[in-house]
Amino acid sequence: MPIQHETELYAPVKHFFEANGYEVRGEVKHCDLVALKSGEDPVIVELKRTFNLPLLIQGLDRLRTSERVYLAVEMNPSGRAPHGLAWNDIIRLCRRIGVGLLTVRFYKTKKPAVHIQCDPEPYTPKRMARRTASLVAEFRQRSADYNVGGSTRQKLVTGYRETALRCALAMETHGPLTTARLRELTGSPKITSILQKNYYGWYQRVNRGTYDLTPTGKEALRMYETVVTGWTVPGEAAGTLKQ
């Protein structure tokens, strides 16, 4: 059974630090637990039954007093992290704000076990240039804002899908086309890959390097008519779909 009160965490965490040579006191200057060892800065531990936002805020506040702050929570018998998260997600968040994380596992027939999931250490953000470039590239590939932010379980109009739709519209307009001609009509250098992978099943190869639209592709143009309406394909009036 899960613990009923956060005070149940105190004894196991206290014993853990005492076993590592610390002197421990509870409720010192509003800190749930403070551990001291000669020549070291104090360790502050905030206790909560489960990981939540108030606990994070407490941890941030305690960093004003010491750089050695831990958040301690119960690891429930199932081992699952709270709120549908993974423990790795919670550990990553703790590291981001510079606090450590302790988990306490309670058992029916043996003493509770305390585990250090991560130690407090200053966080140095590392921006991944490749991810930034990918984000900007995806933004630029979209000709307009076709998605509503916050949507779930919806088919999004990504840059890839938009390029695939442009291919489909060109084939709907002109009939079977070569990859070179499609590259010319759409302006995309990734046409060959899109056609060969045929992720959506919209195309069929009718000859070497030549592709035509499948019934699924024609249906996709109807499904995304609000997206393709207004697009210009050389040789056909803008926004026209063949019936």
Describe, in short, the structure shown:
It comes from Paenibacillus mesotrionivorans. Helices cover 36% and strands 19% of the residues.
Commentary on this structure:
- This protein is of the alpha+beta class.
- Helices cover 36% and strands 19% of the residues.
- The chain has two domains: 6-118, Trna Endonuclease, Chain: A, domain 1; 138-226, Arc Repressor Mutant, subunit A.
- The protein is built from nine helices and nine strands.
- The chain has a six-stranded mixed beta sheet with strand order 1-2-3-4-5-6, sandwiched between helices. It has a three-stranded antiparallel beta sheet with strand order 7-9-8.
- It is elongated and about 80 Å long.
- The N and C termini lie far apart (64 Å).
- Residues 237-243 have low confidence and may be disordered.
- This is DUF2161 domain-containing phosphodiesterase.
- It comes from Paenibacillus mesotrionivorans.
